[in-house]
Amino acid sequence: MIILISRFRINGEELEEALINTYSTSGKEETVIITRSNKRANIFNQEIRKRILFLENEITTGDYLMVAKNNYFWLNPESKAGFIANGDIIEIQRIHKYEDFYGFRFADVSVRLIDYPEENDLNVKIMLDTIMYDGPSLSFKDNQRLFEEILKDYDDIPSRRRRVENVKNSPFYNALQVKFAYSLTCHKTQGGQWESVFIDQGYLTEERINKEYYRWLYTAFTRATGKLYLINFNERFFI
Question: I want to staple 175 with a disulfide (CB 3.0 to 4.6 A). Which of 33, 41, 127, 160 is the partner?
C-alpha cells in the first residue's frame, strides 16, 4: 500500500497559523511537532498551550501527556495493555488534587489511555516535575533521591528488605513520569503515527548532516500519514 503524503515547507512565522489549522482539521490527537531535543520540545509545548490552546494552568483537563517511563503499577496486568508504556499518550479527564512530598510535586488525576479506548478511565498519580524536565525522564540521581526520602517513612521497620518493598509499592515512587505530548523528540515518537506532523530541523551545521541525521529524518518523516510540515528547513532539502 502506498500512502501519499502532502509536504509543506514553512518558516517560524507561519508555524502558528499552520498549527491552528491542523488542530482544527486533524485535531490535537492527530497533530505533533517532532524535534531534536527535550529542551526544544518543552519550548514548543509551552508555546502551544499558551498561544494556541490558551491554557494557563500548569496542567488542565484535556491536556495530552506522554508517559516518559514504563510503569507497571497503575494498570491491571490482566488488561489488554498490561502496563503503561514509555511513549503512551494519555489525556487528563479530571484533576483531583495536588501534593508536595519528598521534595517533588505530584497530582492525582483521572486519565484516558488514548491508544486503548476500550480501557476505562484510570486514576493515577503523576509527577509534575518531569513535565518540563530537560531529560527524557527523571535522572538516576533524582530517582534515587526520591527513593531515599520515601525510605525514611519506614525507619521503624527493622528489615531493610521490607522497607525497600514498601517504597517500591508507594504510589509516590510509582507516579507516572510524564511530559506534554504536543511536541516530542523523534525517539519518543517511534512506533506512533499522526495525520499531521511538523518537523523542527533546529540549528543544523553542515558537519551534523550525516548518516545519523538522515536516519533521524527518515524516522520523523515516516511518522506522518497525511500532511508533513518542514519547519525552517535548509533549501538544500528542496533541490
Answer: 127
Residue ranges of domains in the chain: 1-53+183-232, 57-181
Ranking 10-24, 44-58, 160-174, 224-238 by mean pLDDT, the lowest is: 224-238
Q: What is the tens place of the pLDDT at every residue in 116-165?
A: 988 899 999 999 999 998 888 899 999 999 999 999 999 999 999 999 99
Q: Helices 140-151 and 160-168: crossing angle, nearest 10°?
A: 120
Cell of residue 32, nine digits = 505533533
Task: Give the domain 57-181 fold.
Answer: SH3 type barrels. (2.30.30)
d(CA 215, CA 22): 26
Phi, psi of 15 (to 5 degrees): -60, -45
Query: What pLDDT score was predicted for residue 42?
Result: 96
- Give the rounded percent of residues in the chain with a pLDDT score beyond 70: 95
Order the strands of the 31-35 sheet from edge to edge: 6-10, 224-231, 194-200, 31-35, 183-185
**Helix, strand, coil distribution of the chain in percent, nearest 5:** 35, 30, 40
CA atoms of 228 and 33, how far apart (whole Å): 10
